[in-house]
Amino acid sequence: MAQVLVIGGGWAGLAAGLALKEAGADFLLLEARPRLGGKVRTLRQGGFLVEGGPDASVRYKKEVLELAQAFGLEPIGTIPQKPSALILKGERPHPLPEGLLQVVPGDLRGLARTSLLSFSGKLRALYDLFLPRGNKEDESLREFVERRLGPEVFAALVAPLAGGIYGGEPDELSMKAAFPQLLELERRHRSLILGAMRERRGRGSREEGSLFFSFREGLSALTRKMAEALSERVFTGTPVLGVEPLGSRYRVHTLKGVLEAEALVLATPAPQAARLLRPFLPEATALLKGIPHIPAATVSLAFPEPLPVVGHGLLIAQGEGFRVRGFTWTHQKWEGRALEGHSLVRAYLSGEAAGLSEAELAKIALEDLRRFLGKEVRPSHTFVFRFPEGMPSYRVGHLERLGRLEMALLKAPGLFLAGNYLEGVGLPEVVRSGRRAAGRALAHLALAPTP
Q1: Among 43, 140, 341, 349, which is least packed by CB within 10 angstroms?
Q2: What is the structure's pLDDT at 168?
Q3: Cβ-Cβ contacts under 8 Å for 245 (sequence gap 6 or more)
Q4: Distance, CA of 361 to CA of 367 (rounded, Å)
């Protein structure tokens, strides 16, 4: 019997395991797949280094940086490009407006100069300078942005940027759960534009390439370091078949036998957590099932030639007729990802399209790339990664749902959740959720009676 069982070996589970190890707890980590890392997956093949899932973390959230520092991993920044990112609208790419804070224009000259918005769209955005604060507790991203900055800013700028973070379906995202900083910006400054102008100083800019970081051997370098630190405490290829409350303990059924623990950390995607909780926590199961997950996929295409592309990548505005949500020019974003003189392009798909076969996904990505380039190109290597559970979508009322979920879990003392479906989809938030769940498990152990 262990004191704590961690179920799930993505970054949330690994972070939970590290926190438990630091505290001297007796724990085991179980991962169903043969590998650790969850959606973080780095592949080196044919002279190319390819990220299947996320390809970076952000510097202004310290959780991943602190882990890297603890393991002696040196972060690398993106290759400086100006402009660093563009949005395809009206069949041509437009640089992002200079001075963005998240998705809000924070530079009036940048707003005036951008070719992404029409003159009337810019005028409508400027109304934000005079509008009163909103009074809703929560609203959708679309409703919020259109109320403050107008429908053109949402469709041309905010939807592509937010879709790149939350899986390409941004319309119904909850402001309170997904973009609380923007709600706070309105609360503190009334005007989003004025607030962005005042607060964007001190953050890395996209133009300087300092906002994002990775590692020379990709994000999986940190996965390996975490796995090595946990070593004999980790069991891969060990799917959990069921969880059973047993008095003040839990019995966990696996293909390799039965384990018992005083506390559980479920660091799995929400659908898997719902399956494990269904026999004894029906209310929590229903709440977990109510968090939508949008299928996602990436296709990386390698070419034995330089491609005529600009910046780090291209997002695609709504209504442009492309099936991919955007492209990353990986060879121009990171050093050492492609052979000299070669190109490496990553396409991102979400929603219904992401559920297609690997061959169909590769075909779509190449067709859309050829359409954008206006020329025939033939890849030397193709890498396809599919994520059926994709990204959780924080709909309006998400935080209230989490509150009800916390109450439902009170019926199962010693059981704690971690993952990107809770309070943030980024890697720093995932790490934070794992640490938080481990901390709760440790507090429970301190309160639990000695057997």
Answers
A1: 341
A2: 62
A3: 251, 280, 412
A4: 10
1: confidence class by pLDDT, cuts 50, 70, 90: low
Average pLDDT, the chain: 93
Show contacts of 162-167: CB within 8 Å, 24+ apart.
162/103, 163/315, 163/325, 163/350, 164/315, 164/325, 164/326, 164/348, 165/425, 165/426, 166/391, 166/393, 166/394, 166/425, 167/294, 167/296, 167/350, 167/351, 167/390, 167/391, 167/393
DSSP 8-state class, residue 248: T
CA distances to 41, 139, 319, 393 from 172, rounded to whole Å, are: 29, 8, 17, 8
Q: Which residues contact 157 (CB under 8 A, 6 or more apart)?
A: 87, 96, 97, 103, 116, 117
Q: Name 347's Cβ contacts closer than 8 Å, sequence gap at least 6.
A: 298, 299, 300, 301, 324, 326, 327, 364, 365, 368, 369
- Closest by Cα among 218, 298, 237, 254 to 35: 237
